[in-house]
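#onboarding

Welcome to the new folks! Below is a worked example of what a typical request in this channel looks like: someone posts a single protein sequence, and someone else replies with the predicted structure as tokens. Don't worry about understanding the tokens yet, we'll cover that in week two.

Example request:
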Amino acid sequence: MAEKNFDFILYGATSFVGKIMCEYLADYDAEEFKWAMAGRSEKKINDLKKELSLEGIQHFIVDAENEVLLEQMANQTKVVISTVGPYALYGEPLLKVCATTGTDYCDLTGEPQWIKRMLDAHEKTAQASGARIINSAGFDSIPSDLGVYFSQKYAHEKTGSYVDQIKMRVRKMRGGASGGTVASLLNVLKEAKTNPALRKALINPYILCPEGHPFSVRQKNHKKAEYDEELKFWTMPFVMAAINERIVHRTNALLENRYGDDFRYDEAMSAKKSSDAKKMTFGLGAFVVGASITPVRWMLENFILPKPGEGPSKKEQLKGMFDMRFFAKLADGYQVVKVEGDRDPGYGSTAKMLVQTALTLAKDVPDLPGGFWTPAAGLNEPLRNRLEKHAGVSVSLLDD
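Example response:
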């Protein structure tokens, strides 16, 4: 294989989260690596390089649909990071090129319907070329995937077996939404409205599992505010559960059903009071219904919701955080694992997680075969170590 010029190339460097990643990289001095920027606009990239004093960083001007230029770019690097969403609209050409050329790839997609299409179209190609593909390498779904992985590891160390049920509850979360994330969510709702087969597929918790998987147990789906009698607090739907739960079940399949054929996993937000849970549930439901109606969606996109390139301020990012608890059901009660991050989940923390995913691929897992991997199934311990050292994300087992 030809020598690569870069450890990774960041495609979409001038996107909202791409800029945050560039800021992180501008101050990064923990280890040596070589990286480059890529995007569609020469002016925007040069302006960003000047703003962050990154004039020494090489860049590429490549359109997301130009497979010839995408291939030339991919051939120069070990890993490509893609921040160009909605991925269902713009993501396939770059992933296809990486799968074909044997270039490792990671992204921050939260679009399960797109991942399924990419699995069907490009998984065999990636396996043959040696390309390691890691989707959902941001807040969705690294904390959930690693939280379950290490909950199972700790349970096995204590009891000699893996648990058949884990509940994830978001204890605290502070952060805003960017226009890119909003656009991805609205696109999923738009696709689902016009495609009955897609609506059916999206409610399948095992949609991302390989063909022939043995899983059939019914999974909990949080649709309303509820009181959890065992955990003694109120719960309400968590919008990221739709992607996180499916990534976790794919991890189980890739780990040869380590968590068990009847493993149950669900995610929800926690609340102290029923009124809080009911208000949040009503607000989320109203948004989903409204966004499914074409005139309302148009109004939301044009007058209310942030547009692509917009998002939380620097101050809001620094004040953000998340605290997620994983309750693994043992014979004598619940084991609790905490996953927390020191920045707003979707942007400050996601930017750092995505960089560390790329560096884990480039430096730490040379023997991982080609194919579509999840963060936990493919990267597990090496990724956790990097996140704790360099990204302000930690995984810890709590005392009883």
